[in-house]
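I hope you will forgive my troubling you with a question about protein structure. The record follows directly beneath this note:
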Amino acid sequence: MSLEKEKIVANAKKYFETATKLGFMNDELTTFLGESFITAPAFASNNMPNVFEGGLIDFTLNVTKHLIELNSLLPEAKRINKDSLIKVGLLHSIGKAKLYTTNVPEWKAKKGVLYEYNNALASMRIGQRSLYYSISNGIVLTEEEEQAIVFSDINDDD
């Protein structure tokens, strides 16, 4: 699967307009993320969703939509503030913005690995990198939002 250029542009516009409207996107983070964020895939190999150009923002918007839907199913006393939930949903995977490259050896591509990891980056979990990118580019988060971003990619064995 792939996204049409128009859909990639529309998704990026929706992402940045929503983040700006809610007050947690600034010029510093927008510039830092740049085109690599807009074109980034959500994952590296085709056994995962959104492994195509523009897949990361598409995936992030879907995750955020599902977070809102799940939150609305909770009893009112257990619900999380919607703006905070959207903030975490939209920021939780920005650590993937510069994570993948298209320099894939042919033998890996034949096995469905469409992107390689950018080995120039320090080794971090996606949640840690997303938090690092957010904070180092002037995004203010509550303790709960920081925790939610860091723990967004934990496994059962963590």
